Amino acid sequence: MHMSAFVIDDDKSITRFFGDIIRKMDKDVDVHIFNNSTEARDALDEGRPNVVILDLNMPGINGCEILSKNVTEGTVTLVFTGIDLTPEKESELIYSGATWVIHKPAPVRQVQAYIWRAFKQAESLQLLMRATKLTGSVRQRMKRALINLKNTTSSDGTRILSKESEHAHVAT
Q1: Sequential pLDDT tens for the chain (172 residues)
Q2: Where are the domains of the chain?
Q3: How far, in Å, CA of 4 to CA of 76, rounded?
Q4: Which string of DSSP letters, residue by residue, matches 2-68?
Q5: Which CATH architecture has domain 3-130?
């Protein structure tokens, strides 16, 4: 399944590190690196990646603002931060759209595990969204078919549907 990721951090070595991890894990992921928070915000306004890896402390627009205004539902967001956050602030980030908050520095294996899990969750969300869209499409087609049926009767002469009601009913 084709995926995309935005890695947003003002530190180029960090974005390179995360980008390398993602590329080694899966070759079918478009990785977009942003070292400028304004460019990242604009890119998020234009498209929705499956996964966002975001730093909080950046010049210009901080990660909290990007998270609350530009990251949409259906996007798995990992916040990696070197800031010592209170439990209340971490909860606030989760309510704003962060999936996980991870503190820097973190062991490489832990970072890899979080990123792997983020893509698995994003894949599940993508499948769920497709299924929901398909279900809605089937529902719409069935409704149209019901509307188009006119005074259908069963073999015993019982009227089953009428265009006016759009609901099944039995005529006596």
Answers
A1: 788 999 999 999 999 999 999 999 877 899 999 999 899 988 988 888 999 999 998 888 888 888 877 676 778 999 998 888 889 988 888 888 888 898 888 889 999 999 999 998 888 888 887 777 656 555 566 555 555 544 444 455 554 444 444 444 444 4
A2: 3-130
A3: 11
A4: -EEEEEE-S-HHHHHHHHHHHHHH-TTEEEEEESSHHHHHHHHHH---SEEEEES--SSS-HHHHHH
A5: 3-Layer(aba) Sandwich (3.40)
Return the structure tokens found at 168: 């099944």
Residue 24 class from Cβ within 10 Å (0-12 exposed, 13-18 middle, 19+ buried)?
exposed
Query: Distance (Å, rounded) from C-alpha 11 to C-alpha 1?
Result: 30
Token pair in block for residue 82? 């070197």
Task: Tally Cβ neighbours within 10 Å of residue 96.
Answer: 17
